[in-house]
Amino acid sequence: MADIVYILTNEAMPGLIKIGCTNTELASRIKQLYTTGVPLPFELFYACEVTNCDVVESKLHDAFGDHRISKGREFFRIAPERAKAALSLAEIREVKLGDEIFETTEIKAEVEAAKRRSRFRLSMLGIAPGTELQLAKDFKIICTTVDDGNKVNYLGDVTSLSDAALQAHNALGDGWPSVSGPWAWTYKGKRLDDLRREIEEESD
Questions:
Q1: Which pLDDT score, from 0 to 100, does residue 134 have?
Q2: 129 pLDDT above the threshold of 80
Q3: What is the pLDDT of residues 45-67, one digit of tens each?
Q4: Is 72 helix (H, G, I), strand (E, B) or coil?
Q5: Which residues are CB-neighbours of 185 under 8 A, at least 6 positions away?
Q6: Of 27, 56, 77, 119, which has the highest C-beta tally within 10 A?
Q7: Residue 184: what are its φ and ψ, rounded to 5°?
């Protein structure tokens, strides 16, 4: 089997990602991680074949060590896009999953409910309509909030934070299939995603 390094997210663990590796079938590995101690199944964000998964995984863990939740654990409090950008440097080819890993209606419903609970809203940060946000990659690129949810005006069109971010990044030549809006846009020099985490940590 090929050496694979993967990045997983979990709706029960907002703000965290898991960086791991396997030389077995990827879907089977993700299923194995859904144990009684994990309330919801993991979802694949990105995975790729590499020359030596143990080496690549170790280097990623070292690179993001200051974001590691606990020594000896593979969980990190960083945006998945950031980990993907680093991992893609070692990519031989991207690995994607075809059919749903978890087919039961009950599990799918639980995942969707968790997504609704953790969905980002501008009101979480006290950002009012009419506020300018800057793209983290290029502060000259801006959008303007139009409600307290996740709608913004970008280039004259009202759309979501994520869609506006995708348009902006693709215009810069990134060619990404998707991007997280709260990760891509900033307010007062900080990513919205980081601001949300700061507020959540203060309330814990």
A1: 97
A2: yes
A3: 999 999 999 999 999 999 999 88
A4: coil
A5: 133, 134, 135, 136, 143, 152, 161, 164, 165, 191, 192
A6: 56
A7: -80, -35
Residue 177 structure tokens: 């299939």
Residue 79 and residue 180 in contact, taking contact as beta carbons nearer than 8 Å = yes
11-20, 34-43, 112-121, range with greatest mean pLDDT: 11-20
- Are 5 and 47 within 8 A, CB to CB? yes
Whole-model pTM over 0.85: no
Q: For the chain, first and last CA: distance in Å?
A: 43
Q: Give the span between the Cα atoms of 41 and 125, in whole angstroms.
A: 28
Asked if residue 184 lies in contact with residue 165, where contact means CB atoms within 8 angstroms, the answer is yes
Residue 30: exposure state from Cβ atoms within 10 A (0-12, 13-18, ≥19): buried
Q: Which residues pair with 48 in a beta bridge?
A: 5, 94
Distance CA 107, CA 42 (A): 11
Per-residue burial over 174-197, b if 16 or more Cβ lie within 10 Å, else e, is eeeeebbbbbbbbbeeebbbbbbb
Contact between 114 and 40 under an 8 Å Cβ cutoff? The reply is: yes
Pair 61, 18: CB distance under 8 Å: no
